[in-house]
């Protein structure tokens, strides 16, 4: 099936989980063959990982449905709003909307200007205070310097709070596997893919690998990597 979608990196972990579950079924049969001693679980797993794209073709229909449904749910349903799409911020396509806005300019420039003024005024005030006798302006410079220092601290606090709010508002949605709930339609599509992948792809591949190893006892040529059966063929029963 040449039209089968390529296994995406984000689904690699799901593939490995299905493979590990199938390995327990294939290698823990009631009457294990001599091949089980020759091809261990690690060897079978490595073979199945190398043939992941080929094995996934057996569940191509279900996987294509999962990818399509997941992309539909990830696609934004409306225009992007919030700080990341506001004036002066890059939009969804990377463009920057004109007009930064007075609030943004004040938030950015206030700590810088107030901090610079505080350093200059405090430095001059303490230098003049060292004179004997100290001029009256020294006290005024120190008072102004400490005032601008307080403005600087308030500006930094406001900027930090703004960054925190922006980060929380623009936090990307957690993907499957991190504990976050995903839409029911995506969950059902994922479960259908898992079942098809296990029953029509991974298990038949593992059973064929064990059968091929049975036909090549130790000391003969290594069996070649088996191909998964065509979609629709069921795995042999583990009697």
TrEMBL record:
Lineage: superkingdom: Bacteria
Membrane-spanning residues: 102-126, 146-168
Annotated keywords: Membrane, Transmembrane, Transmembrane helix
Region (Disordered): 71-94, 216-239
Protein name: Transmembrane protein
The species this protein was found in: Streptomyces kanasensis
């Amino acid at each position: 099936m040449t039209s089968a979608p390529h296994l995406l990196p984000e689904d690699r972990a799901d593939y490995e989980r299905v493979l590990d579950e199938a390995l327990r079924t294939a290698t823990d049969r009631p009457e294990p063959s001599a091949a089980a001693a020759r091809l261990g679980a690690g060897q079978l797993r490595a073979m199945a990982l190398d043939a992941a794209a080929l094995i996934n073709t057996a569940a191509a229909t279900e996987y294509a449905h999962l990818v399509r449904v997941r992309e539909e749910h990830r696609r934004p349903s409306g225009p992007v709003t919030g700080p990341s799409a506001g004036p002066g911020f890059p939009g969804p396509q990377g463009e920057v909307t004109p007009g930064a806005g007075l609030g943004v300019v004040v938030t950015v420039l206030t700590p810088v200007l107030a901090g610079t003024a505080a350093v200059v005024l405090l430095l001059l005030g303490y230098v003049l205070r060292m004179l004997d006798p100290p001029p009256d302006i020294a006290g005024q410079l120190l008072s102004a310097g400490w005032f601008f220092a307080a403005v600087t601290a308030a500006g930094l606090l406001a900027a930090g709070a703004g960054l925190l709010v922006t980060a929380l508002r623009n936090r990307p949605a957690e993907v499957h596997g991190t504990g976050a709930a995903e839409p029911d339609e995506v969950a059902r599509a994922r479960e259908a893919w898992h079942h098809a992948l296990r029953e029509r792809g991974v298990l038949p591949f593992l059973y064929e690998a064990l059968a091929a190893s049975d036909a090549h006892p130790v000391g003969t040529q290594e069996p070649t990597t088996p191909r998964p059966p065509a979609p629709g063929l069921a795995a042999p029963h583990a009697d």
